[in-house]
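Pasting as-is:
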Amino acid sequence: MNKEILYIADPMCSWCWGFSPVISSIVEDYSEHASLTLVVGGLRPGNDQVLNDEAKKVLLGHWHQVHDHTGQTFDFELKFPTNFVLDTEPSCRAAATMQQLNPEKTLDYFKTLHKAFYLNHQDITQPDILTQLATPFDVEAEAFVTSLQSEEMQKRTIEDFQFAQRLGVQGFPTVVLNDEDGYKLLCNGYQPYERLKPFLQAWVDGNLKTQTS
């Protein structure tokens, strides 16, 4: 069995945005040793509550915490559309759609979703915006939106949520290593790359037999 890195994350998870440079470094250094599979986690799927002033304060608190801890840039103005609802299912489904249509661009698209949300305040719950963001990654708009809105993709997205739950994932980002010995937890929550790299190296060398964190 080939080695596989499972990245369980959500496009609208601020800690996942903070982790974005870390997962990029993991792919850059270990893509020759293991494939990367994105598993969309579903941070707040199906949420129907409008982001009111109190919720915005809570959200901003999380964003400042992530910025302070990771150095990732945010636009703290919160210029979202009126009556914005933070439902993470559509953007998760969009990431799953890209993984089906052009898997090599999945992580790049995932980063684009992060930037659209955290830097540009785009409403990435909307199919037209999700499609516009996808077309630079060698997919046709019509094919993307058709797949995005299909029952098959809705089912596949739910299956990702359920798979993450079966793995015992309780927060994002989470990275799980998969090989012939089964699943090993690399991290649950943000960790800097410098902390993770020794465990990854031990894993590719065949010396990592237990969970690391």
